Amino acid sequence: MIAIIDTGGANLASVTNALDRLSVNWKITTDPKVIEQASHVLLPGVGACADSMARLEQANLVAYIRTLKQPVLGICLGMQLLFGSSEEGNTTCLGIIDAAVKKISPQPGLTIPHMGWNQVAFEQNCPLFKDIPANSWFYFVHSFAGTMGPWVMGSVSYGSKLPAVVKWQNFFGTQFHPERSAEAGSQLIRNFLDL
Known about the structure:
The protein is α/β, with parallel strands linked by helices. It is built from 6 helices and 13 strands. It has helices spanning 12-21, 32-37, 49-58, 62-66, 77-80, 182-193, and strands at 2-5, 26-29, 40-43, 72-75, 83-86, 91-92, 97-103, 114-122, 137-142, 144-145, 152-158, 160-168, 171-174. The chain has a 9-stranded mixed beta sheet with strand order 2-1-3-4-13-12-11-8-9. The model has no long low-confidence stretch (mean pLDDT 96).
C-alpha cells in the first residue's frame, strides 16, 4: 500500500488517478500508523508552502516524516518541502535537504510561473531514471525552485539550471508533475514503486 500524505494540495486527484492506472493500492492519510505500514510514501503538493507546512504541523507529522525509512517521493511543492526553508512566506520546511528554496529570478522572455513541458537533463545516475530516455519532457508548474547541490539528480534549464529531481538518502523529489507527464512520468512513478 502507498501512503499519500495529505498536504491539502490540489493535485491529489491526478496523483491517485496515476496510481489507479498502475493498479496500485493507495490511501490518503495523515495517520502515522498508516504511513508506517506503507511500502512507499508520496508527499504531493500544489499551493502555498506555508499552508502545507502548517497542515503537516497540525497533524504532528513534521518530525515524524524526517524519520521515515521507506522510499518517499515529494512531488512539485512536495519536493520543495524536503528543503530546509523556502522564500515563499519565509517558511521553515522539513530540513531533509540542507538548502533553501528561492523564487525563480525574473528574466526577459521568461514567464513566471514556469509552466509547461520542459526537458530534464540527468545529472547523476538515479534509480528513478530507469528506462527513461535522457532529456525526456516533463510537465512543470512552479514559481519557486530548490538550490543546486549534490542532491540534484536531474535539472531543468529555465533562465538558469534548476533542480528537477533530487535525492537524499531514501527521500526523492520531482519539481515536475510525473502524474501529468505522459509515459515518461508513468515510468518514473513505476521506478519509484520498484524501489
